[in-house]
Amino acid sequence: MSGLSAADLPAMSPAELRAAWREQYRKPAPDIGPDLLRRGIAWRIQARVHGGLPRSTTRAIEKAQRRLERTGSVSSPRDLAIKPGTRLVREWQSKTYHVLVLDDGFEHDGRHYTSLSQIARA
């Protein structure tokens, strides 16, 4: 099966898919249905041909996985926060909204908010 391509996958039986998974991932296939096996194998084939995820993305996924194992949840990383001083502009239902990002929240129409959700509900 070493010459396997993504085009071969739709015609493969579940047993053939499990064998292809083992060949691609070097470990037994997880207990998932044929459709997910096909998707996983197709991704692996494409990653080998076109390159996989960037190392920074892989590190972020691994970090989230460790956080999930430790805490039971995956919260969004704080390093993706919007920098203070940034002005957010959004048009919605023919009205333009301007929000200023602060060190401790947001300012909209001269009022302070701790989250963008609060502004949306206001």
From TrEMBL:
What InterPro entries does the record point to? DUF2924 (IPR021322)
Q: Name one Pfam family in it.
A: DUF2924
Query: What protein am I looking at?
Result: DUF2924 family protein
- Cite the source lineage: Bacteria, Pseudomonadati, Pseudomonadota, Alphaproteobacteria, Sphingomonadales
